[in-house]
Design a protein that fits this description.
Layout lengths: L2 H4 L21 H9 L13 H10 L6 H14 L12 H13 L3 H8 L3 H4 L4 H8 L1 H10 L4 H4 L3 H15 L2 H15 L6 H21 L3 H15 L1 H15 L5 H14 L5 E6 L2 H11 L8 E7 L2 H14 L1 E2 L5 E2 L12 E6 L5 E8 H9 L13 H6 L10 H10 L5 H12 L4 E6 L4 E5 L4 H9 L6 E6 L2 E3 L10 E6 L18 H13 L1 H9 L6 E4 L8 E3 L6 E3 L11 E5 L5 E5 L3 H8 L4 E2 L1 E3 L5 E10 L4 H11 L3 E7 L6 E10 L5 H9 L4 E6 L1
Parallel strand pairs: 2-6, 7-11, 14-16
Antiparallel strand pairs: 1-2, 3-5, 4-5, 5-6, 7-8, 9-10, 9-11, 12-20, 13-18, 15-16, 15-17, 19-21, 19-22, 20-21
Helix pairs in contact: 3-5, 4-6, 5-6, 5-12, 6-9, 8-9, 9-11, 9-12, 11-12, 11-21, 12-13, 12-14, 13-14, 14-15, 15-17, 21-24
């Protein structure tokens, strides 16, 4: 494969925003030769890292570069004589990785660790030496990036290396920043390897590193990695896309003219803004071509507007929607609702009088820095900023434990098998959306998009969620399989019975690895319970019938006529009732608000006055709605018996989605005890509603 096909960065239209104005592309071979000439004089930085120093000072003018000089000297000395497969001196690799991070605005500690990131792995330098020379912070980061020994782990070395890096990232996110920059430079120089090895590395990059770059918000690295992977894994489609971009370069591009119009509108409105045209990268152009078919001239880029303050973003939006025709369906507000990877911007699209449609992104310069560099742009998140700086910088976020990373670190402890870890890790990272739901106690849970109440239960309660019997979403009872939406409030109902466990069909609705691993583990250790849950739905309704019949305690103003209480509404004293003569001369008694009363009158049934006897006993039918669990029927009948009520008959329907419906016909010694009876039944664990039939 040609160098051009494996390196989209070679095309100016691929990633122009990664290069600073006035700074040409680095000649790594020249830097390598300079490195081999030996260290510079002790009073200045070696020439080989002059570009790193320049890029670092652009973001951190007051940075102390002496530690970089010492780190470079150690790296150059320890790697001296080592060569890359491309034939370049090995020191060019840590230099290139460090330059990538310096361009993104990484602070000095990250750059120091980046220069040293391969020394412990590939040279005789030890972690103790790094700690003694550069401190615990740099030592921890270098250790986090260092691969595990293949001789110790064999085929499991790669997944275990990623496990180690992710655990280290949970304590210091800068570990993953260096790993991403390391992979980017390796992907840029992958053309010297065999095609099969290129494909293997590209697939791991696609499945693991690119999603991690997305989650950490490092879009500048993510988009270039996407293009490099695209070129290797889909060379034909890549060449087609490259041809599309090349053909567009020879045509009239409407975007510069639209950008000029936008500048004029904002200038007239008195809004200070920088307006630039940002070409799409290769994968973005490919996706748009798949979505729209034939591409328009304005599809090859977007208009980016940079302003000073958040309020200016909305002012710009108002001017755009006033002076151009907005495409309403394309509007998204990621400032009011930031993405889970720190991304903030306003997205819209406008149509010009000439019929061109342009996508527009509006953000502050700080938002732009975070959008491009993600957590790298936040500097050292473990150093508390000054009080005045903290108050003035509302966008500073501590990224040490975002929700997805906390979930990942939790479930990886339950996946000791490397194959399971590797498989589940890829599945977890494939989830490209995150939601936040609120707990009943006021806390929050971060979950992947599409998560169910089962996932929320295990995220909040761990293995105690085995006893979850139901949930309320925004106050409404729902099944555990119900999907959650961003901003929902979820209350999880747990059984008091310690023997309760999950049903096998929970796996069909669990989305998070933590939930799936916990459920699978319980089912494997309780095979009999698992089998029972799968056969419950096949059982016929359970009926229990008492020996006693029982007469009605209502009296009709029709001598010698038998009186029956209607089963549809089961009236009891002191309900207001109405009686109607039916076939056979009997009188049926209904509550006056029963729908059957209107039907009786409509068909001309004879109405009869009815009153209650002085005796207080009565018969009533109650419906109980509950979540399925062992011993529920016994607990309900015991609660009924404690109230001094006799069960005439009971029917229990088969469970549906863990919910069970009970019907009880009861003989009460006193109708006034009905409210207390219904309260006692509702207090039984798992019962969420009791009503009259």
């Amino acid at each position: 494969m040609s160098a051009e096909a494996t390196n989209p960065e070679a095309h100016p239209e691929a990633r122009p925003e990664l290069r600073r104005r006035g700074r040409g592309r680095l000649d790594l071979r020249r830097l390598g030769r300079a490195a081999l000439l030996g260290p510079a004089s002790r009073d200045r930085l070696p020439d080989a890292i002059g570009h790193v120093a320049e890029a670092h000072r652009a973001h951190h003018p007051d940075a102390d570069l002496s530690i970089l000089r010492r780190a470079y000297l150690l790296a150059e000395t320890s790697h001296r004589g080592q060569m890359r497969k491309s034939g370049e001196p090995y020191i060019t690799h840590p230099l290139a990785v460090t330059l990538i991070l310096a361009e993104l605005g990484a602070e000095t500690t990250t750059l120091t660790a980046s220069l040293l990131h391969d020394t412990v792995e590939d040279t005789d330098v030890t972690l103790d030496q790094v700690r003694e020379e550069f401190g615990d912070e740099v030592c921890f980061i270098v250790d986090g990036v260092t691969k595990v020994e293949k001789i110790d782990y064999g085929a499991a070395a790669e997944p275990e290396t990623f496990r180690k890096m992710l655990v280290a990232t949970g304590n210091d996110v800068r570990v993953m920043s260096i790993k991403l920059a390391d992979r980017l430079h390796n992907m840029r120089t992958l053309g010297v390897m065999r095609p099969d090895k290129q494909a293997r590395i590209a697939k791991v990059t696609r499945d693991v590193l690119i999603p991690l770059a997305e989650r950490l918000g490092v879009q500048a690295l993510k988009t270039e990695l996407e293009d490099l992977v695209f070129a290797i894994l889909h060379p034909e489609e890549y060449e087609e896309t490259r041809a599309l971009i090349a053909a567009h370069a020879g045509e009239r591009d409407p975007l510069p003219g639209i950008a000029d119009s936008v500048r004029g509108v904002l200038r007239d409105a008195g809004i200070a803004a920088e307006v630039v045209v940002r070409p799409r990268h290769f994968v973005s152009v490919h996706r748009i071509s798949r979505k729209r078919g034939e591409l328009r001239g304005s599809d090859f880029g977007r208009v980016l507007i940079l302003v000073g303050e958040n309020a200016d973003c909305y002012a710009v939006l108002g001017e755009l929607h006033t002076c151009f025709t907005p495409v309403v369906s394309e509007f998204k507000d990621f400032i009011a609702s930031p993405k889970f990877n720190l991304y903030q911007s306003l997205h819209t699209a406008v149509a010009t009088a000439e019929g061109h449609v342009a996508e527009v992104i509006v953000r502050t310069r700080q938002m732009h820095r975070v959008a491009e560099a993600g957590v790298v742009a936040l500097g050292n998140p473990y150093t508390t900023p000054p009080v005045d700086a903290a108050e003035g910088d509302e966008e500073r976020v501590d990224p040490t434990r975002p929700g997805w990373l906390s979930r990942l670190l939790d479930w990886q402890q339950s996946a000791p098998d490397p194959d399971t870890f590797w498989t589940v890790l890829r599945a977890e990272l494939a989830q490209d959306r995150e939601i936040t739901v609120f707990r009943a106690d006021g806390g929050t849970l971060g979950l992947p998009g599409g998560a169910s109440c089962i996932d929320a239960a295990y995220a909040q309660h761990g293995e105690a969620a085995h006893g979850c019997i139901g949930a309320r979403i925004n106050g409404r009872l729902t099944s555990l399989s119900s999907r959650l939406s961003d901003g929902d409030t979820v209350q999880l109902l747990l059984a008091h019975d310690a023997s309760s466990g999950p049903a096998a069909d929970w796996l069909d609705h669990a989305k998070t690895p933590a939930a799936r691993i916990a459920i699978s583990g319980w089912l494997q250790t309780h095979p009999d319970s698992a089998a029972a849950t799968t056969t419950t739905a096949a059982r016929a309704p359970l009926s229990v019938v008492g020996a006693r019949g029982g007469g009605a305690n209502a009296v009709a103003d029709l001598p010698d006529a038998p009186v029956r209480l209607a089963g549809c509404c089961t009236p009891v004293p002191p309900d207001a009732v109405a009686g109607f003569v039916v076939r056979g001369g009997a009188v049926t008694v209904h509550r006056v608000h029963c729908p059957a009363v209107a039907q009786m009158r409509a068909v001309g049934r004879t109405s009869v006055a009815v009153h209650w006897r002085a005796t207080a006993d009565c018969r009533v039918t109650l419906l109980a709605e509950s979540f399925g669990r062992p011993h529920l029927l016994a607990d309900l009948t015991e609660a009924i018996a404690r109230e001094g009520v006799e069960v005439v008959s009971a029917t229990v329907e088969p469970p549906v989605e863990q919910r069970v419906r009970h019907s009880y016909t009861l003989q009460l010694p006193d109708a006034t005890g009905l409210p207390a009876l219904m309260r006692a039944m509702r207090d039984v664990p798992g019962v969420y509603d009791v009503s009259r039939a």
